[in-house]
Design a protein that fits this description.
Structural class: alpha+beta
Strand content: over 45%
Radius of gyration: 16 Å
Number of strands: 9
Length: about 140
Amino acid sequence: MKSILFFSILIAAFANTCFAQFTNSKNLQFIKDFRIKLDGGCSFYTYDSTPIDANKYIFIISAKQVGFINVSDEYVYLKNTKNIKLNNHQYKKIFKGNGYDIVLDIRYVGKFDSNDSLYEGSMQIKYKNSFQYLKIHGKVANL
């Protein structure tokens, strides 16, 4: 029992260290302006604690499957390298670029409005040896 508790504490400390490394050196921020042309067919994601209609997004995917984030006021662009359909309503999307790997694990929840669908899930960000796991939700344009 003591060894299980010890390993649980060790894993929690390691995860906290990885999270601290990412957030101390590189801070994920809301996207202030869209530096690429965004036409229809885009996806907009934010923290699950932030209302979607507040227009405060942390990850945007263009119709051409280019994703971007704002890290310490620098825009990082990533290319969608793989899409995995897990079932009729759940997907895994993998993006890579500029030393970052982002994995979206998302599932369809329902309609957001007449133009968009609501999705929720997680976003995993890997940069060098650090890792960050976020709960997200967002709106995805209906095509």
